[in-house]
Amino acid sequence: VGIGGLIGFVINLSMVFHQNFLFLIAILFVLFGIIANARINLRAHVFSEVILGIIIGVSLQLFVPILYQNI
Fold first, then answer.
1. Which one of 6, 12, 27, 42 has the minimum C-beta count within 10 Å?
2. C-beta contacts of 36-41 below 8 A and 24+ residues apart
3. For residues 65 and 17, what is the distance between their CA atoms, to the nearest angstrom?
4. Exposure of 26 by Cβ count < 10 A (0-12 exposed, 13-18 middle, 19+ buried)?
């Protein structure tokens, strides 16, 4: 959820401020891959938990501005 939240936050910044952060987003996805690989190899998580974590992290960060626009 941690790195997924960071990826979602940077995507949000890119969309809100109309800036191109694709290079930073790509670096964060590579970092996610390294972290996910380490967590799986250490048997701290299984693959499905890692994927669920990234989905939850990114989706929460992307849905928060939608909720604030409706307030």
1. 42
2. none
3. 13
4. exposed
Q: Which residue has the tokens 């890692």?
A: 50
Q: Output the CA–CA distances (angstroms, integers) from residue 59 to 6, 37, 44, 62, 70, in the order listed.
A: 11, 21, 23, 5, 17
- Global pTM value: 0.87
Q: Look up tokens 């972290």; give the residue.
A: 35
Neighbours of 53 (CB within 10 A): 20
d(CA 69, CA 57) in angstroms, rounded, equals: 20
Which of 59-69 are b and which e, b meaning 16 or more Cβ less than 10 Å from the residue's Cβ?
A: eebeeeeeeee
What tens-digit pLDDT sequence spans the chain (71 residues)?
899 999 999 999 998 899 999 999 999 999 999 999 999 999 999 999 999 999 999 999 989 888 887 76
